[in-house]
Amino acid sequence: MSSAQAARQALADQLKELRGEVGLTAKALAAEAGWDRTKVSHIEHARRPPSAEDIRTWCRVCGADDQAEDLVASLRAAEGMWVEWRRMERGGLKRAQESVLPLFERTRMFRSYASWLLPGLLQTEGYTRAVLQAVRRRRGLVDDVEAAVAVRMERTRILRRPGRTFAFLVEESVLRAGVGGAEVMREQLAHLADMACLPSMSLGIVPMRPDREIRPVEDFWIFDGEQVSVELVSGYLTVTNPREIAMYGQAFGALAEEAVYGARARRLINDALDVLADEE
């Protein structure tokens, strides 16, 4: 069960327990609330998420108005674990970038795995602009790309702040993916090689080869071992379940063993630069 599913089920269990404490049947609660008789069952089995108003009605019928707002807060937390991109970005790309700043500010140990785009903290301004422009066009968003780029660039300053450590794993294919054109990629790859020299940072490149034991997975960030953020095609997933966090930690460790570092990593970056030169 995922963190989001577990949170929804935990809320459903609390509501069922509340009904049981006052001796109401599901049928009686539905009748008192003016609902279809199947609604209570669907909510208690987490097949249908309740609305905030449903929770307040449930608590009123059970004589537990004092618990309503805490349960509504649990609902909001569960909803926040899975956010569709269109919902996260409906206020524009700038606001979406700003929404994750507090998480980056408070984290001290970062681990990031990238299988399709370089992590934002390692991106140049040109690379970020190309990525966000593509996102804006694909999702039909308002054009606040320049403001969003400025927020993203401001965030990269944490790489040089004391008391933080960063471990990045990047698939070699990401170095060769065309983002923004040859000039943007040349600048980006040179920047990546420079950033790898920061004392607080470890950069591993996972080489392309036909005998890989660990296959690429979705891009993810691990923040202090307390939260994992996963970027999927349809949305943004926040994982807080300790068992799931451990699974991502194990995946990161396995991928780290496949990666190369230092001079060997720089060699792969230079190989990607050579490919760009050959294509001119």
TrEMBL record:
The keyword Endoplasmic reticulum does not apply. Keywords: DNA-binding. One of its GO terms (molecular function) is DNA binding. SUPFAM superfamilies: lambda repressor-like DNA-binding domains (SSF47413). It holds the Pfam family DUF5753. It comes from Actinomadura algeriensis. The keyword Disulfide bond does not apply. This is DNA-binding XRE family transcriptional regulator. InterPro entries: Cro/C1-type_HTH, DUF5753, Lambda_DNA-bd_dom_sf. Residues 15-71 form the HTH cro/C1-type domain. PROSITE patterns: HTH_CROC1.
